[in-house]
Amino acid sequence: MAKSATSRPSARVVQLRKGATLEMVRLTCPDAAQAMRIAESFGTAVVDGDGVRDTHERLILETVEALSEGLAERAMQIHLQRIVGAYVGSAHGAGQFYSRAVTEARDATAKAASDARDDDRDGIVGYDSSAQRKREFAADMGIQAFSLRMAAEGAVAAYEHAVGESWKPFDRPVDNPGQTLDRKAAEAQMDALG
What we know:
This is ArgG. Residues 170-194 are annotated as: Disordered. Keywords: Plasmid. By secondary structure, the chain is an all-alpha fold. It has six helices and two strands. It has helices spanning 22-28, 32-42, 49-67, 73-113, 130-163, 181-193; strands at residues 16-17, 172-173. It has a two-stranded antiparallel ribbon. The protein is flat.
């Protein structure tokens, strides 16, 4: 049997790089109640989350007003999409970092509580133990993540007010995932050879 000389064009699957959503931020960053517990337990400053949210919402809406004469409606929507995406992405990154810091603090605290360990239980006199430093670091990261969460929530609220629809992250296509620059160059050279 002879194979036919015609070939089908292969279907191209376009992979998308998913952007962070506000729901992802809410899952990784502390809420107001948890931020308050952190502040009380570690003696850190209490962040006015509502104030941060309102300030950022106002900031974005003032930006919209300032640009309204210079940008068409669609251009404004694209501009706001990018700005809000940056706020949400920043908060999500902070939330992920906070989660890792909490895991390290838990591990260090559990290790310090073990009776079977050989290390010193406490730090050097006058210094905090390693586990205590990790707990304090996680607390600081929690307050930062909460602050950025509230900024992102304010930006999303401003987007919805200005554009009239819910903000969604832009999912950008991934350019040939897994294909390295050398491989692309080789393909271009082979194409040039015929």
